[in-house]
Write a structure and sequence with these properties.
Low-confidence stretches: none
Strand content: under 5%
Structural class: mainly alpha
Number of helices: 11
Mean pLDDT: 88
Number of strands: 0
Helix content: over 70%
Shape: globular
Number of domains: 1
Length: 226
Amino acid sequence: MVEYWTGQIESAYSAIMTTIAARIIDTLVPFGILLRTSKELRPFERWGEILWRFLPQTFFVFWLFTFIPFGGGFIYMLALVPLSVKLNSYASSSGDFQKFAHELLVYYVVILIGFGGFWSFVGHTFMADTIAAEIGWETGSPFQTELAFYTLGTAVTALLAVWIRGHLITALVFSKSIFWYGAAYVHIQDAILNENYAPLNIGTPLIGDLLYPTLLLALLAKVHRT
């Protein structure tokens, strides 16, 4: 009898802690709430909620994580986003890593490319001179405005993955990966040729330009392996 009630208490405690953890993760990664139910959505349903709820909330939370030195953004993308998939995805309960990889890939396309593109657009548009100075670029360059609109275009396209999957995911991963690898090449070349060791030239952005496309391409290869 004691063992029975001990087991019941432990099960209840585990369920409560899982629920609390899931709610915390949903607060930190609000897109998880949307993506859990996105398969039931009609095309472009809840678009307004994306603009007025999920994007602003993600901006605020991600902004807080940027204050963590040398890796706040990586903690968000590499720890919290996979944890959101783990807590909320049917794939994680089945133990099928390939299904989990597919869910994670969708999350990354929407959050990393989609939200990340909006984040980059805001930086290169409304804080253009500050960002340019921290990269070691000249301020006032129209090419920075062009970069901002490129990231905005990929961001909007990536958000379509809320409703549209399939080859759109593949195309976005290849397109963005080529851009990231190319950006890494430019940053490294600038450091070697011009001795540009500015924080945003060879710091965490360079790591992300190499790490994120490698991760996404690996997930894509896993998903399409069957």
